[in-house]
């Protein structure tokens, strides 16, 4: 095998190891995420709209996105989640980011249009055992089918949505 072939195999090996480590860290961080969404859980969006995640997830998978205005990684992930909201049901939870007006101003200044719930005291996040932002949960038929924290790519989220649909 030539020199370039060996370099390619070595690079591929590094990518596999890095992917395995990232997968393991993701599993560890999201180990305490509940596996189901209580049917009685109804949340209220910034627009005053009542939202039932369990009921919404009966028709199509729901992307539940936990983020914060103070999160250094969220400005990288939020535009992807906003893009997804054009074709998928996305509910975002602003974790301890201040009062409603502050969160609304942040969304407007960053041109983010996804439906948002303000979790100013962290109660919703505690219910889902969330401590890390950004975190994305995929909910399908009352079940959390996927959970990931940190940077996530558009193909990564789309793959999780696709796998979620296969599980039903």
Oligomer: single chain
Query: Can you tell me the CATH class of the largest domain?
Result: Alpha Beta
CATH topology of the largest domain: Glutaredoxin
The counted number of beta strands is 7
Written description of the protein model:
- The protein is α/β, with parallel strands linked by helices.
- The chain folds into 2 domains: 1-31; 34-166, Glutaredoxin (3-Layer(aba) Sandwich), CATH 3.40.30.
- 43% of the residues lie in helices and 22% in strands.
- The chain is built from 6 helices and 7 strands, in the order αββαβαβαβαββα.
- The strands form 2 sheets. The protein has a 5-stranded mixed β-sheet with strand order 5-4-3-6-7.
- The longest helix has 27 residues, at 3-29.
- It is globular and about 65 Å long.
- The model has no long low-confidence stretch (mean pLDDT 86).
Describe the structure in brief.
By secondary structure, this protein is of the alpha/beta class. The protein is built from six helices and seven strands, in the order αββαβαβαβαββα.
Features:
168 residues; alpha/beta; Glutaredoxin; two-stranded antiparallel sheet; 6 helices
Q: How are the SSEs placed, and which strands pair?
A:
Elements: H1 3-29, E1 42-44, E2 50-52, H2 53-59, E3 62-67, H3 74-84, E4 89-95, H4 100-109, E5 115-119, H5 123-127, E6 135-140, E7 143-149, H6 154-166
Parallel strand pairs: 3-4, 4-5
Antiparallel strand pairs: 1-2, 3-6, 6-7
